[in-house]
TrEMBL record:
The keyword Protease applies. This is Murein DD-endopeptidase MepM/ murein hydrolase activator NlpD. GO terms for molecular function: metal ion binding; metalloendopeptidase activity; peptidoglycan binding. Its cofactor is Zn(2+). The lineage of its organism: Bacteria, Pseudomonadati, Pseudomonadota, Gammaproteobacteria, Pseudomonadales.
Length: 485
Protein backbone atom coordinates (compact mmCIF):
# COMPACT_ATOMS: atom_id res chain seq x y z
CA UNK A 1 0.00 0.00 0.00
CA UNK A 2 1.59 3.24 -0.98
CA UNK A 3 1.12 6.39 0.93
CA UNK A 4 0.93 8.35 -2.25
CA UNK A 5 -2.60 7.20 -2.96
CA UNK A 6 -4.02 10.16 -1.12
CA UNK A 7 -2.44 12.58 -3.56
CA UNK A 8 -3.95 15.94 -4.08
CA UNK A 9 -5.91 15.21 -7.30
CA UNK A 10 -8.29 13.08 -5.25
CA UNK A 11 -10.10 16.07 -3.90
CA UNK A 12 -11.51 18.72 -6.17
CA UNK A 13 -10.49 22.33 -5.77
CA UNK A 14 -13.88 23.34 -4.48
CA UNK A 15 -13.10 21.46 -1.33
CA UNK A 16 -10.01 23.36 -0.66
CA UNK A 17 -10.73 26.07 1.79
CA UNK A 18 -7.73 28.03 0.77
CA UNK A 19 -7.96 30.01 4.01
CA UNK A 20 -4.99 28.22 5.38
CA UNK A 21 -2.55 25.76 3.98
CA UNK A 22 -3.86 22.67 2.24
CA UNK A 23 -1.41 20.62 4.20
CA UNK A 24 -2.84 21.71 7.51
CA UNK A 25 -6.32 20.69 6.44
CA UNK A 26 -5.21 17.41 5.04
CA UNK A 27 -3.19 16.51 8.08
CA UNK A 28 -6.04 17.52 10.34
CA UNK A 29 -8.48 15.44 8.34
CA UNK A 30 -6.18 12.51 8.70
CA UNK A 31 -5.84 13.16 12.38
CA UNK A 32 -9.56 13.28 12.87
CA UNK A 33 -10.06 9.97 11.16
CA UNK A 34 -7.97 6.99 12.20
CA UNK A 35 -5.58 6.25 9.41
CA UNK A 36 -6.86 2.71 9.06
CA UNK A 37 -10.23 4.06 8.14
CA UNK A 38 -8.61 6.41 5.72
CA UNK A 39 -6.73 3.54 4.16
CA UNK A 40 -9.83 1.44 3.86
CA UNK A 41 -11.92 4.20 2.37
CA UNK A 42 -9.24 5.71 0.26
CA UNK A 43 -11.23 5.92 -2.96
CA UNK A 44 -14.02 7.67 -1.11
CA UNK A 45 -11.85 10.02 0.82
CA UNK A 46 -13.55 13.23 -0.04
CA UNK A 47 -16.75 12.96 2.00
CA UNK A 48 -14.45 12.77 4.97
CA UNK A 49 -12.45 15.67 3.72
CA UNK A 50 -15.63 17.64 3.48
CA UNK A 51 -16.75 16.94 7.00
CA UNK A 52 -13.30 17.62 8.29
CA UNK A 53 -13.09 20.91 6.49
CA UNK A 54 -16.47 22.08 7.68
CA UNK A 55 -15.32 21.35 11.19
CA UNK A 56 -12.33 23.51 10.65
CA UNK A 57 -14.43 26.28 9.21
CA UNK A 58 -16.48 26.37 12.37
CA UNK A 59 -13.46 26.48 14.59
CA UNK A 60 -12.08 29.30 12.53
CA UNK A 61 -15.26 31.28 12.94
CA UNK A 62 -15.50 30.78 16.64
CA UNK A 63 -12.00 31.41 17.74
CA UNK A 64 -8.80 32.63 16.20
CA UNK A 65 -6.81 29.66 17.55
CA UNK A 66 -5.28 28.13 14.46
CA UNK A 67 -6.10 24.53 13.63
CA UNK A 68 -2.43 23.78 13.15
CA UNK A 69 -1.86 24.40 16.84
CA UNK A 70 -4.49 21.81 17.70
CA UNK A 71 -2.69 19.41 15.48
CA UNK A 72 0.56 20.30 17.17
CA UNK A 73 -0.89 19.48 20.55
CA UNK A 74 -1.59 15.91 19.50
CA UNK A 75 0.95 13.19 20.15
CA UNK A 76 3.61 13.36 17.56
CA UNK A 77 3.17 9.73 16.65
CA UNK A 78 -0.23 10.55 15.25
CA UNK A 79 1.13 13.56 13.55
CA UNK A 80 3.86 11.50 12.09
CA UNK A 81 1.52 9.03 10.50
CA UNK A 82 -0.43 11.88 9.01
CA UNK A 83 2.74 13.40 7.72
CA UNK A 84 3.70 10.11 6.14
CA UNK A 85 0.51 10.10 4.23
CA UNK A 86 0.80 13.68 3.26
CA UNK A 87 1.61 13.69 -0.39
CA UNK A 88 3.45 16.99 -0.39
CA UNK A 89 6.10 18.52 1.79
CA UNK A 90 5.16 21.71 3.50
CA UNK A 91 7.48 23.78 1.42
CA UNK A 92 5.53 22.64 -1.58
CA UNK A 93 2.18 23.01 0.03
CA UNK A 94 2.91 26.54 1.16
CA UNK A 95 3.75 27.28 -2.42
CA UNK A 96 0.60 25.55 -3.56
CA UNK A 97 -1.63 27.46 -1.18
CA UNK A 98 -0.14 30.79 -2.19
CA UNK A 99 -0.72 29.87 -5.79
CA UNK A 100 -4.26 29.03 -4.94
CA UNK A 101 -4.79 32.27 -3.09
CA UNK A 102 -3.30 34.08 -6.00
CA UNK A 103 -5.06 32.37 -8.89
CA UNK A 104 -7.98 30.19 -7.96
CA UNK A 105 -9.33 31.41 -4.69
CA UNK A 106 -12.06 34.04 -4.53
CA UNK A 107 -11.06 37.48 -3.23
CA UNK A 108 -12.90 36.93 0.05
CA UNK A 109 -10.52 34.15 0.89
CA UNK A 110 -7.56 36.34 0.19
CA UNK A 111 -8.87 38.80 2.70
CA UNK A 112 -9.08 36.20 5.43
CA UNK A 113 -5.71 34.78 4.62
CA UNK A 114 -3.48 37.21 6.54
CA UNK A 115 -5.34 36.68 9.82
CA UNK A 116 -5.29 32.90 9.37
CA UNK A 117 -2.28 31.12 10.83
CA UNK A 118 0.57 29.96 8.68
CA UNK A 119 0.66 26.22 8.22
CA UNK A 120 3.30 24.33 10.15
CA UNK A 121 6.46 23.96 8.20
CA UNK A 122 8.04 20.53 8.07
CA UNK A 123 11.72 20.26 7.38
CA UNK A 124 13.21 16.83 6.89
CA UNK A 125 16.88 16.80 7.75
CA UNK A 126 19.08 15.71 4.89
CA UNK A 127 22.62 14.42 4.86
CA UNK A 128 24.98 16.95 6.36
CA UNK A 129 22.21 19.07 7.85
CA UNK A 130 22.75 20.55 11.27
CA UNK A 131 20.22 22.14 13.53
CA UNK A 132 21.20 25.57 12.25
CA UNK A 133 20.73 24.59 8.60
CA UNK A 134 17.37 23.04 9.48
CA UNK A 135 16.33 26.23 11.23
CA UNK A 136 17.56 28.28 8.30
CA UNK A 137 15.50 26.13 5.91
CA UNK A 138 12.46 26.82 8.03
CA UNK A 139 13.24 30.51 7.91
CA UNK A 140 13.84 30.80 11.62
CA UNK A 141 16.49 33.34 12.60
CA UNK A 142 19.66 32.14 14.30
CA UNK A 143 18.83 34.19 17.38
CA UNK A 144 15.71 32.10 17.92
CA UNK A 145 17.78 28.95 17.61
CA UNK A 146 20.09 30.27 20.32
CA UNK A 147 17.08 30.98 22.49
CA UNK A 148 15.73 27.46 21.98
CA UNK A 149 19.07 25.83 22.76
CA UNK A 150 19.59 28.09 25.74
CA UNK A 151 16.20 27.23 27.16
CA UNK A 152 17.25 23.81 28.44
CA UNK A 153 20.30 21.60 28.53
CA UNK A 154 18.12 18.69 27.59
CA UNK A 155 16.94 20.41 24.41
CA UNK A 156 20.50 21.23 23.48
CA UNK A 157 21.54 17.64 24.09
CA UNK A 158 18.66 16.02 22.22
CA UNK A 159 18.89 18.37 19.27
CA UNK A 160 22.67 18.52 19.28
CA UNK A 161 23.21 15.73 16.81
CA UNK A 162 20.45 15.35 14.32
CA UNK A 163 20.14 12.51 11.86
CA UNK A 164 19.18 12.56 8.22
CA UNK A 165 15.51 11.72 7.82
CA UNK A 166 14.43 13.27 11.13
CA UNK A 167 11.44 15.52 10.73
CA UNK A 168 11.13 18.93 12.33
CA UNK A 169 7.81 20.63 12.41
CA UNK A 170 7.83 24.35 13.00
CA UNK A 171 4.68 26.20 13.98
CA UNK A 172 4.58 29.94 13.73
CA UNK A 173 2.47 32.59 15.36
CA UNK A 174 0.56 35.06 13.20
CA UNK A 175 3.40 37.57 13.58
CA UNK A 176 5.82 35.03 12.12
CA UNK A 177 7.58 34.17 15.35
CA UNK A 178 8.37 30.58 16.16
CA UNK A 179 5.71 29.21 18.43
CA UNK A 180 6.47 25.52 18.65
CA UNK A 181 8.84 22.92 17.34
CA UNK A 182 8.21 19.23 17.20
CA UNK A 183 10.96 16.82 16.37
CA UNK A 184 10.78 13.12 16.11
CA UNK A 185 13.95 11.66 17.56
CA UNK A 186 13.23 8.05 16.74
CA UNK A 187 10.28 5.74 16.23
CA UNK A 188 9.05 6.21 19.78
CA UNK A 189 10.62 9.42 21.09
CA UNK A 190 9.63 12.96 20.32
CA UNK A 191 10.59 16.34 21.67
CA UNK A 192 8.33 19.34 21.77
CA UNK A 193 9.52 22.86 22.33
CA UNK A 194 6.91 25.50 22.89
CA UNK A 195 7.08 29.21 23.43
CA UNK A 196 5.71 30.49 26.71
CA UNK A 197 5.94 33.73 28.60
CA UNK A 198 9.19 32.55 30.20
CA UNK A 199 10.78 31.64 26.89
CA UNK A 200 10.84 28.15 25.42
CA UNK A 201 9.79 25.13 27.42
CA UNK A 202 10.73 21.58 26.52
CA UNK A 203 8.64 18.46 26.73
CA UNK A 204 9.68 14.94 25.97
CA UNK A 205 7.39 12.25 24.99
CA UNK A 206 8.04 8.56 24.68
CA UNK A 207 5.22 6.69 23.10
CA UNK A 208 4.71 3.24 24.49
CA UNK A 209 3.81 0.78 21.79
CA UNK A 210 0.60 -1.04 22.43
CA UNK A 211 0.94 -4.78 22.93
CA UNK A 212 -1.94 -6.84 21.77
CA UNK A 213 -2.69 -10.40 20.85
CA UNK A 214 -3.70 -11.34 17.36
CA UNK A 215 -5.33 -14.43 15.96
CA UNK A 216 -4.40 -15.81 12.55
CA UNK A 217 -5.43 -18.89 10.66
CA UNK A 218 -4.23 -20.41 7.43
CA UNK A 219 -4.82 -23.43 5.24
CA UNK A 220 -1.86 -24.94 3.49
CA UNK A 221 -1.93 -25.33 -0.23
CA UNK A 222 1.64 -26.39 -0.98
CA UNK A 223 3.86 -25.55 1.94
CA UNK A 224 3.81 -23.66 5.21
CA UNK A 225 5.49 -20.40 4.19
CA UNK A 226 3.13 -19.10 1.51
CA UNK A 227 0.14 -20.00 3.68
CA UNK A 228 1.69 -18.27 6.68
CA UNK A 229 2.42 -15.19 4.61
CA UNK A 230 -1.14 -15.10 3.39
CA UNK A 231 -2.30 -15.28 7.01
CA UNK A 232 -0.19 -12.23 7.82
CA UNK A 233 2.66 -13.98 9.63
CA UNK A 234 6.22 -12.89 9.07
CA UNK A 235 8.78 -15.36 7.84
CA UNK A 236 10.35 -15.65 11.27
CA UNK A 237 6.93 -16.28 12.83
CA UNK A 238 6.39 -19.13 10.38
CA UNK A 239 9.76 -20.55 11.35
CA UNK A 240 8.90 -20.29 15.03
CA UNK A 241 5.62 -22.03 14.37
CA UNK A 242 7.37 -24.88 12.61
CA UNK A 243 9.90 -25.11 15.43
CA UNK A 244 7.16 -25.39 18.03
CA UNK A 245 5.75 -28.44 16.28
CA UNK A 246 9.11 -29.77 15.11
CA UNK A 247 8.95 -32.72 17.50
CA UNK A 248 5.68 -33.98 16.12
CA UNK A 249 5.54 -32.86 12.54
CA UNK A 250 8.22 -33.24 9.93
CA UNK A 251 7.64 -30.09 7.90
CA UNK A 252 9.64 -31.46 4.98
CA UNK A 253 7.78 -34.75 4.70
CA UNK A 254 4.47 -34.69 6.51
CA UNK A 255 2.78 -31.53 5.23
CA UNK A 256 -0.26 -32.10 3.02
CA UNK A 257 -2.56 -29.79 1.12
CA UNK A 258 -5.46 -28.89 3.41
CA UNK A 259 -3.38 -28.97 6.59
CA UNK A 260 -4.25 -25.96 8.67
CA UNK A 261 -2.77 -23.87 11.40
CA UNK A 262 -3.95 -21.29 13.88
CA UNK A 263 -1.92 -18.98 16.08
CA UNK A 264 -2.47 -16.40 18.75
CA UNK A 265 0.54 -14.18 18.91
CA UNK A 266 1.68 -10.93 20.46
CA UNK A 267 2.04 -7.86 18.36
CA UNK A 268 3.50 -4.45 19.12
CA UNK A 269 1.67 -1.61 17.47
CA UNK A 270 2.04 2.10 17.36
CA UNK A 271 -1.19 3.65 16.23
CA UNK A 272 -2.05 1.83 13.07
CA UNK A 273 1.52 0.80 12.44
CA UNK A 274 2.69 -2.71 13.18
CA UNK A 275 6.08 -2.52 14.79
CA UNK A 276 6.86 -6.11 15.55
CA UNK A 277 5.37 -9.55 15.89
CA UNK A 278 6.24 -11.16 19.20
CA UNK A 279 5.77 -14.48 20.91
CA UNK A 280 3.39 -17.16 19.80
CA UNK A 281 1.14 -17.70 22.83
CA UNK A 282 -0.88 -20.59 21.46
CA UNK A 283 -0.96 -22.58 18.27
CA UNK A 284 -2.86 -25.41 16.73
CA UNK A 285 -1.83 -27.45 13.74
CA UNK A 286 -3.92 -29.99 11.89
CA UNK A 287 -1.61 -32.29 9.98
CA UNK A 288 -3.17 -35.06 7.89
CA UNK A 289 -6.27 -34.97 10.06
CA UNK A 290 -4.43 -35.09 13.35
CA UNK A 291 -4.61 -32.05 15.63
CA UNK A 292 -1.63 -30.81 17.60
CA UNK A 293 -1.83 -28.00 20.13
CA UNK A 294 0.83 -25.87 21.76
CA UNK A 295 0.67 -23.22 24.45
CA UNK A 296 3.43 -21.07 25.80
CA UNK A 297 3.81 -21.23 29.56
CA UNK A 298 6.28 -19.72 32.01
CA UNK A 299 6.53 -21.77 35.18
CA UNK A 300 7.04 -20.47 38.70
CA UNK A 301 10.81 -20.83 38.29
CA UNK A 302 10.61 -18.51 35.29
CA UNK A 303 11.36 -21.10 32.60
CA UNK A 304 9.30 -20.73 29.45
CA UNK A 305 8.36 -23.68 27.28
CA UNK A 306 5.66 -24.86 24.95
CA UNK A 307 3.28 -27.51 26.17
CA UNK A 308 0.36 -29.35 24.72
CA UNK A 309 -2.95 -27.90 25.85
CA UNK A 310 -3.22 -30.63 28.49
CA UNK A 311 0.17 -29.87 29.95
CA UNK A 312 2.63 -32.24 28.32
CA UNK A 313 5.88 -30.82 27.09
CA UNK A 314 6.21 -30.19 23.38
CA UNK A 315 9.91 -30.61 23.79
CA UNK A 316 11.29 -34.07 23.37
CA UNK A 317 14.75 -35.51 23.67
CA UNK A 318 15.24 -35.28 19.91
CA UNK A 319 13.89 -33.11 17.14
CA UNK A 320 12.72 -34.98 14.09
CA UNK A 321 15.01 -33.58 11.45
CA UNK A 322 18.44 -31.99 11.62
CA UNK A 323 17.81 -29.77 8.57
CA UNK A 324 14.82 -27.46 8.24
CA UNK A 325 12.70 -28.01 5.16
CA UNK A 326 15.08 -30.38 3.41
CA UNK A 327 14.06 -33.14 1.04
CA UNK A 328 14.81 -36.71 2.07
CA UNK A 329 16.87 -38.10 -0.78
CA UNK A 330 17.58 -41.50 0.72
CA UNK A 331 15.98 -43.41 3.57
CA UNK A 332 17.35 -45.89 6.05
CA UNK A 333 17.71 -49.40 4.66
CA UNK A 334 19.45 -52.61 5.47
CA UNK A 335 20.61 -53.17 1.87
CA UNK A 336 20.88 -50.99 -1.26
CA UNK A 337 23.34 -50.38 -4.06
CA UNK A 338 25.78 -47.64 -3.10
CA UNK A 339 25.85 -45.05 -5.92
CA UNK A 340 29.62 -44.60 -5.87
CA UNK A 341 30.96 -47.93 -4.66
CA UNK A 342 28.35 -49.73 -6.79
CA UNK A 343 28.04 -52.45 -4.19
CA UNK A 344 25.03 -53.63 -2.24
CA UNK A 345 25.43 -51.86 1.07
CA UNK A 346 23.14 -51.00 3.89
CA UNK A 347 22.29 -47.31 4.20
CA UNK A 348 22.42 -46.85 7.91
CA UNK A 349 21.06 -43.36 7.97
CA UNK A 350 18.84 -40.83 6.28
CA UNK A 351 20.01 -38.40 3.60
CA UNK A 352 18.68 -34.87 3.44
CA UNK A 353 19.32 -33.00 0.21
CA UNK A 354 19.56 -29.23 0.58
CA UNK A 355 21.56 -26.39 -0.95
CA UNK A 356 25.17 -26.05 0.06
CA UNK A 357 25.51 -23.97 3.21
CA UNK A 358 22.09 -24.83 4.67
CA UNK A 359 22.42 -25.03 8.49
CA UNK A 360 22.46 -28.42 10.19
CA UNK A 361 21.15 -28.65 13.75
CA UNK A 362 22.00 -30.95 16.63
CA UNK A 363 18.88 -33.06 17.13
CA UNK A 364 19.44 -33.35 20.88
CA UNK A 365 21.52 -31.96 23.74
CA UNK A 366 24.88 -33.66 24.01
CA UNK A 367 28.63 -33.68 23.89
CA UNK A 368 30.59 -33.52 20.64
CA UNK A 369 32.56 -36.73 20.39
CA UNK A 370 34.05 -35.75 17.06
CA UNK A 371 34.10 -32.67 14.87
CA UNK A 372 36.52 -33.39 12.06
CA UNK A 373 37.23 -35.51 9.01
CA UNK A 374 36.19 -39.13 9.04
CA UNK A 375 37.08 -41.03 5.82
CA UNK A 376 34.23 -41.33 3.34
CA UNK A 377 31.98 -39.34 5.70
CA UNK A 378 34.01 -36.22 5.01
CA UNK A 379 33.56 -33.46 7.58
CA UNK A 380 31.62 -35.15 10.34
CA UNK A 381 30.11 -34.35 13.73
CA UNK A 382 29.29 -37.14 16.16
CA UNK A 383 27.27 -36.20 19.24
CA UNK A 384 26.89 -38.37 22.31
CA UNK A 385 23.50 -37.95 24.02
CA UNK A 386 23.57 -39.46 27.51
CA UNK A 387 24.96 -42.97 27.74
CA UNK A 388 22.82 -44.69 25.17
CA UNK A 389 22.30 -42.51 22.14
CA UNK A 390 24.56 -41.06 19.53
CA UNK A 391 23.91 -39.07 16.35
CA UNK A 392 26.21 -38.55 13.37
CA UNK A 393 26.17 -35.82 10.70
CA UNK A 394 28.32 -36.31 7.60
CA UNK A 395 29.50 -34.62 4.36
CA UNK A 396 29.40 -31.15 5.96
CA UNK A 397 30.87 -28.18 4.20
CA UNK A 398 32.17 -26.84 7.49
CA UNK A 399 31.53 -26.70 11.21
CA UNK A 400 29.68 -23.96 13.04
CA UNK A 401 31.62 -21.64 15.31
CA UNK A 402 32.40 -23.19 18.68
CA UNK A 403 31.63 -26.74 17.61
CA UNK A 404 34.69 -28.88 18.22
CA UNK A 405 35.55 -32.23 19.72
CA UNK A 406 34.74 -32.07 23.42
CA UNK A 407 32.31 -29.13 23.31
CA UNK A 408 28.71 -29.43 24.39
CA UNK A 409 25.79 -28.58 22.15
CA UNK A 410 22.15 -27.79 22.75
CA UNK A 411 19.27 -29.29 20.88
CA UNK A 412 18.57 -27.23 17.78
CA UNK A 413 21.96 -25.54 17.84
CA UNK A 414 23.58 -25.14 14.44
CA UNK A 415 26.59 -27.43 14.29
CA UNK A 416 27.60 -27.12 10.63
CA UNK A 417 26.46 -26.61 7.06
CA UNK A 418 25.39 -28.79 4.17
CA UNK A 419 28.22 -29.74 1.84
CA UNK A 420 29.45 -32.66 -0.17
CA UNK A 421 32.74 -33.64 1.46
CA UNK A 422 33.87 -37.28 1.53
CA UNK A 423 32.17 -39.92 -0.61
CA UNK A 424 29.20 -37.94 -1.76
CA UNK A 425 27.40 -37.34 -5.04
CA UNK A 426 26.03 -33.89 -4.23
CA UNK A 427 25.26 -31.51 -1.38
CA UNK A 428 23.37 -33.42 1.32
CA UNK A 429 23.48 -34.42 4.94
CA UNK A 430 23.90 -38.06 5.87
CA UNK A 431 22.36 -38.47 9.33
CA UNK A 432 22.72 -41.53 11.56
CA UNK A 433 21.14 -42.43 14.86
CA UNK A 434 22.53 -45.11 17.18
CA UNK A 435 21.05 -46.61 20.30
CA UNK A 436 23.46 -48.70 22.36
CA UNK A 437 25.81 -48.89 19.40
CA UNK A 438 23.14 -50.15 16.98
CA UNK A 439 22.03 -48.09 13.97
CA UNK A 440 18.31 -47.38 13.97
CA UNK A 441 16.06 -45.52 11.54
CA UNK A 442 15.70 -42.02 13.02
CA UNK A 443 12.39 -41.56 11.22
CA UNK A 444 10.84 -44.56 12.93
CA UNK A 445 11.88 -43.65 16.44
CA UNK A 446 9.25 -42.93 19.01
CA UNK A 447 10.52 -39.72 20.47
CA UNK A 448 10.99 -39.46 24.17
CA UNK A 449 8.92 -36.86 26.00
CA UNK A 450 10.52 -34.19 28.15
CA UNK A 451 9.08 -33.22 31.54
CA UNK A 452 5.39 -32.34 31.67
CA UNK A 453 3.90 -29.58 33.85
CA UNK A 454 4.51 -30.45 37.49
CA UNK A 455 1.45 -31.40 39.47
CA UNK A 456 1.64 -28.34 41.74
CA UNK A 457 1.36 -26.00 38.75
CA UNK A 458 -1.24 -27.84 36.75
CA UNK A 459 -4.07 -25.64 38.03
CA UNK A 460 -2.18 -22.45 37.25
CA UNK A 461 -1.24 -23.77 33.84
CA UNK A 462 -4.79 -24.65 32.93
CA UNK A 463 -6.08 -21.30 34.14
CA UNK A 464 -3.74 -19.48 31.80
CA UNK A 465 -4.01 -21.72 28.81
CA UNK A 466 -7.67 -22.66 28.70
CA UNK A 467 -8.70 -19.08 27.95
CA UNK A 468 -6.26 -19.03 25.04
CA UNK A 469 -7.67 -22.24 23.64
CA UNK A 470 -11.20 -20.94 24.13
CA UNK A 471 -10.36 -17.77 22.26
CA UNK A 472 -8.85 -19.80 19.45
CA UNK A 473 -12.06 -21.81 19.11
CA UNK A 474 -14.16 -18.69 19.15
CA UNK A 475 -12.02 -16.80 16.62
CA UNK A 476 -12.00 -19.80 14.32
CA UNK A 477 -15.78 -20.11 14.46
CA UNK A 478 -16.15 -16.40 13.70
CA UNK A 479 -13.72 -16.60 10.82
CA UNK A 480 -15.40 -19.63 9.29
CA UNK A 481 -18.80 -17.97 9.62
CA UNK A 482 -17.43 -14.89 7.82
CA UNK A 483 -15.99 -17.08 5.07
CA UNK A 484 -19.37 -18.65 4.44
CA UNK A 485 -21.13 -15.35 3.89
ZN1 LIG B 1 23.63 -41.31 3.35
Amino acid sequence: MTQKDTKAPLYPKSHILAASGVAALLSLALLVFPSREVEAKKPFIHPEMESASSQIEKTDDQEPEPPSIDAAALPFAMLESSMDRQPVTTEQSTEQSSQQTGRDAPPATVATAPSAPASPKVVTAGKGDTLSTVFAKAGVPASTLQEVLGSSKEAAKQLGHIKAGQKFEFTFAANGELQALHAKLDKLKTIEIRKSAQGFSVKHETVKPEMRTVYARGVIDSSLFPAAKKAGLSHSMALTLSNIFAYDIDFAQDIRRGDEFEVIYEEKRLGSKRLQQGNILAARFVNRGKTYTAVRYTNKQGATNYYTADGNSMRKAFIRTPVDFARISSRFSNGRRHPILNKIRAHKGVDYAAPRGTPIRATGDGKVKLAGRKGGYGNTVIIQHGNRQQTLYAHMQGFAKGVRTGSTVKQGQIIGYIGTTGLSTGPHLHYEFQINGVHVDPLSQKLRMADPIVRGEKQRFLQQTQSLMARMNQEKATMLAMDKR
